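[Discussion] Sanity-checking designs against the backbone

I'm trying to build intuition for which residues belong where. Below is a C-alpha cell string of 230 positions. I'd appreciate it if someone posts a full sequence so I can compare it with mine line by line.
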C-alpha cells in the first residue's frame, strides 16, 4: 500500500516521518537505482513500469530507510504529470499503535488484542475490525457470559461494566458484523477509537481489578535482617 505520492520526479530533499526521531524530519536521498519492467497488454508491449529504489537518510539522526517509488506508463494526473507511488522499508510508524501490557490478561485474550493491533498497523482494517469483535467475544467468555448471541452476552456483561462501555461494545458488534459479512471497513479514525475503548475495557476489567486487589491485601512483613553477633 502506498504511503504517499510524488509527482514527476522523486525529490532529493523532502520531509517524512522518522521512526527514530518520532516526528517528521528532513530527509535526503543518498543512493538510487532504477529498474524497468515491460508492461504487456496480452502479447503487446504498451510501455514499461519503473521502480526507483533509493537509500534515504534522516538529516537529524542519520537513520537509513529504503524508499521504493513505483510508476506506470499510464499513471498520470489529468494535467499529464507522472505519479510515483511511494512506500518505505521499514514502514513509517506515525499512525501506528503500540500494544499495551496488561498484567492479568489471559494468553488467549492477549493474542487477540495484539493481533488486532498488528492488523491495524499493517492497514488490514477489516481483519482489525473482526479482531476487535473477537476480543469482545473473548472478554464475555472469560467473564462467564457465554449464553446466547453476542448481543445477549454484552447485555450480561453490563452487570460488571459501566453502561457507557456497554454501548460501545454494541457498536463494536455492529462494526464486526459489517466487516465479516459485508466486507465493509470502518474508517481508520473509528478503528483507532475502537482500539482505545477496548484498551479501556481491558484496563477496567483486568488491570484496575488486579491493582485494587493488591492495594487491599495486607502488607507483607519483612524479616528483620539485623542479627546480633554471637
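Best answer:
Here's mine. Compare freely.
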Amino acid at each position: 500500500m502506498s504511503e504517499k505520492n510524488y509527482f514527476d520526479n522523486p525529490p532529493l530533499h523532502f520531509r517524512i516521518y522518522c521512526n527514530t526521531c518520532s516526528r517528521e524530519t528532513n530527509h535526503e536521498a543518498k543512493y538510487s537505482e532504477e529498474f524497468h519492467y515491460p508492461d504487456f497488454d496480452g502479447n503487446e508491449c504498451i510501455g514499461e513500469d519503473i521502480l526507483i529504489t533509493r537509500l534515504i537518510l534522516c538529516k537529524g539522526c542519520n537513520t537509513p530507510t529504503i524508499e521504493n517509488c513505483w510508476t506506470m506508463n499510464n499513471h498520470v494526473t489529468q494535467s499529464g504529470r507522472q505519479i510515483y507511488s511511494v512506500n518505505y522499508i521499514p514502514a513509517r510508524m506515525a499512525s501506528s499503535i503500540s500494544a499495551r501490557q496488561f498484567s492479568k490478561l489471559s494468553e488467549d485474550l492477549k493474542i487477540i488484542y495484539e493481533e488486532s493491533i498488528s492488523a491495524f498497523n499493517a492497514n488490514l482494517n477489516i481483519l482489525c475490525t473482526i479482531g476487535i469483535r473477537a476480543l469482545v467475544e473473548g472478554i464475555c467468555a472469560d467473564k462467564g457470559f457465554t449464553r446466547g448471541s453476542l448481543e445477549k452476552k454484552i447485555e450480561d456483561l453490563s452487570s460488571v461494566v459501566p453502561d457507557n462501555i456497554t454501548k460501545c461494545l454494541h457498536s463494536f458488534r455492529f462494526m464486526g458484523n459489517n466487516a465479516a459479512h459485508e466486507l465493509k471497513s470502518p474508517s481508520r479514525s473509528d478503528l483507532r477509537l475502537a482500539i482505545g475503548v477496548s484498551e479501556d475495557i481491558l484496563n477496567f476489567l483486568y488491570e484496575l481489578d488486579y491493582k485494587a486487589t493488591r492495594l487491599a491485601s495486607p502488607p507483607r512483613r519483612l524479616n528483620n535482617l539485623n542479627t546480633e553477633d554471637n
